[in-house]
């Protein structure tokens, strides 16, 4: 059973630089553990070492895992964690809308923010992919990126709880992200309980019109 618990790291003050650095490191940690990412572990560890304790320790914990585990095991664990479990999706709108028609409008909010900032996306990528949103907030438009993340605090907390329940090594990354965002409100708690009870809707529809936009193209995985 998912149990809500306040993350004490939220109370710690983080500078804008700290938040951007957390988002940048988290974006890489939550993306597929490619050879390029694994080659950056030492560099990321050094960068994380400059952060306050509240976010440094969770990130260093995951970086240690990436630096010591077998790459094939890391890849298998990533797929098992995020691709095979509906309650551990890295697509933020999936929790509320699943693969339903209503999800299209939610996805357009992300695409509109990216478009206004001049950011181009790979046509095959849905714009609510958490590593992408984190990268956007860290390197393109902090204000708009932080707004998108803050609007999805209930989803991020639900994902953290789901990962923690399964003893996933990725749970500390979500704790670090949440430490950069507004505290969970009473309304957020109600929304978390609602999403946890209902689970993602299961109506199957094609999302290609929302994933592929001729005005947005580029080189992201």
Automatic annotation (TrEMBL):
Sorted UniProt keywords: Nitrate assimilation
UniProt cross-references to InterPro entries, sorted A to Z: DMSO/NO3_reduct_chaperone, NO3_reductase_chaperone_NarJ, TorD-like_sf
One GO term of the biological process aspect: nitrate assimilation
GO molecular function, one term: unfolded protein binding
NCBIfam families associated with the record: narJ
Full protein name: Nitrate reductase molybdenum cofactor assembly chaperone
Species this protein is from: Mycobacterium lacus
């Amino acid at each position: 059973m998912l149990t809500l618990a306040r993350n004490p790291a939220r109370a710690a003050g983080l500078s804008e630089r700290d938040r951007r650095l957390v988002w940048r490191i988290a974006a890489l940690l939550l993306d597929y553990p490619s050879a390029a990412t694994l080659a950056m572990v030492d560099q990321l560890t050094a960068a994380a070492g400059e952060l306050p304790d509240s976010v440094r320790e969770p990130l260093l914990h995951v970086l240690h895992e990436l630096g010591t585990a077998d790459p094939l095991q890391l890849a298998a664990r990533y797929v098992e964690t995020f691709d095979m479990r509906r309650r551990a999706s890295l697509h933020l709108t999936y929790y509320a809308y699943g693969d339903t028609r209503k999800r299209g409008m939610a996805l357009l909010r992300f695409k509109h923010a990216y478009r206004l900032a001049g950011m181009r996306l790979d046509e095959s990528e849905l714009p609510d992919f958490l590593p992408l949103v984190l990268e956007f907030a860290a390197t393109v438009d902090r204000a708009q990126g932080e707004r998108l993340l803050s609007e999805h605090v209930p989803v991020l907390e639900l994902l953290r709880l789901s990962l923690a329940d399964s003893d996933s090594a990725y749970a500390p990354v979500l704790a670090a992200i949440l430490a950069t965002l507004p505290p969970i409100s009473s309304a957020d708690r109600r929304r978390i309980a609602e999403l946890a009870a209902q689970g993602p809707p299961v109506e199957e529809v094609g999302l290609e019109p929302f994933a592929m936009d001729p005005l947005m193209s580029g080189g992201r995985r």
